[in-house]
What does this fold into?
Amino acid sequence: AWAMAMRLEPADRLGAALKLQLIGKAPAAAGPPSAFVETLFDQYAATFEESLVGKLGYRMPDFLDQAIRSVRPGRFSLAVDLGCGTGLMGERLRPIADRLEGCDISAAMLKQARAKGIYDRLVKADLQDFAFAGPKADLVVAADVFIYVGALEGIVSTVAGMLSEDGLFAFSVETLADGELAGGNGFALRPSRRYAHSQGYVRDVLAASGFSILSLDSTIVRHDRHEPIDGLAVVAGKSSTS
It folds into this structure.
């Protein structure tokens, strides 16, 4: 059925390719089909905050906000919220950002974020093929976003190019459990069709793009089927040698 879905709709809004990967009937991919992520969040937008915060105990924006303030108290000239969704992270960033920009793959999520009136600019963009042409930012944040990216080398390299010399990069990932690592890549697709990453992989990818880790904390990202989902909250800065 999943193979037929792929033949009928190669863009794969249903995420059939991910199901095939999970049962070993397709090779592991570096990331999910963009059409699947876009469709998922277009459908989810109206109930996103109620479900994620109210039912799943999602607190990552608060956790990253505290981590950023601990590493560097004060204000930021330009903050960019990657995968901004409905603006949960943006609500925390607005008080400390002179200018706040956001991007997301889902037009429906952007509509929810725009209604809050907290962003100076919102752009529809796919983080798997993301380019940023604006002025250098001094803070880039990706809260609970990389679970729908997979391989992080490309986006982390892009963020490095977006940041000013002393800029900060704050983000979260779901973490792999012992024995869960698939294929030695440092990340793996889970039955939830989200990606989890190893701490070692996160460290290696950051170092390769010239980042130094300023804080790294284990936390509970959210709950799923009444089980806590372990993750990391990371704040990194561009190293002097980058």
Notes: The beta strands are 76-82, 97-104, 121-124, 137-142, 163-175, 187-189, 195-197, 211-224, 227-238. The mean pLDDT is 92. The chain has one domain: 42-238. Residues 102 and 122 are 5 Å apart (CA to CA).
